[in-house]
Amino acid sequence: MAQRTLARYLTEEQRDKGVITGDLKFLIEIVSRACQAISIAIGKGGLGGVLGEAGSDNVQGEAQKKLDVLSNEILLEANEWGGHLAAMASEEMDLPHLVPNRFPKGEYLLTFDPLDGSSNIDVNVSIGTIFSVLKCPEGADLSTPEAAEQAFLQPGTAQVAAGYAVYGPTTLLVLTVGDGVAVFTLDREQGQFVLTQENAQIPADTKEFAINMSNRRFWEAPVRRYVDEMVAGREGPLGKDYNMRWVASMVADVHRIMTRGGIFMYPMDEKVRDKGGKLRLMYEANPMAFLVEQAGGAATTGRQRILEITPDKLHQRVPVILGSKNEVDRVTGYHAD
Ligand code: AHG
Ligand code: MN
Ligand code: MN
What we know:
The protein is an alpha+beta fold. The chain has eight helices and 17 strands. The chain is globular.
């Protein structure tokens, strides 16, 4: 049987299920090409001069690495000319990037975290790219980058596609177009993403959790209660032993959960309360929540389903709890107690 490349998979989705349009297919193909280019740059490491600091800060006041800047440029350049997009927004840019006037415009909006897991770049641990696709509302004002921000402020339920690339021992692309989750593996010789798993499912129960434990003293009571119960193991109220993993690249932690289940938390804590949380709604929380729900898992802030948040600003941050459904429901329930 012929290999099911990403292009072939998208064509079949388009033909058989009608879940995607020709433009969306093209958009996802272009994003996947950009991820391949990022994967190649990452693979060069110290030989390509891509490691280390860029010497600048992003809009969030975080120091940018060279690869944050390079990945952002690769995604912008790959996507701006194709006629499938109205605008793009990135974690690394203050304002939306409009499609230049010399290029045709399309009906979609693309948001991305070009390089997730920046602290792991220089230590050769898995990093990734996260993206989300929305439809541009009819009549949206795209006359200036400032005006264009409004078009992006849609709840996660409005996403038409989301995905991530994880640059690990293998480069994978994990994608949903609202019809389950498919996993593609980069065949480096062919330069193609090839379907390696369809209909990925996150088990409802788990014995594995991911959280930055060093923040324990800053957490709210419900999360502290839940983590203490897990740490208490078999003798505790949950009656089973749990294991802990924390890569500190959301893509890698979420991909482990996508593969074998688990719960991931970057909850509200006193250090990040004034910002609203640590992770970004448009570039991290929403696309991951869409993927996780499509794989049978759940995603909340502890108090609300992530996908139902109506954003009030592009760079909004939120608490994130996602993964195996029964565990997410349990800790979300603790917030209501
Ligand atoms: P980014 O590299 O895009 O800024 O994202 C980093 C995020 C996320 O990937 C990860 O889960 C979390 O920050 C790690 O935070 P800590 O350093 O606090 O563990
Ligand atoms: Mn990130
Ligand atoms: Mn990033």
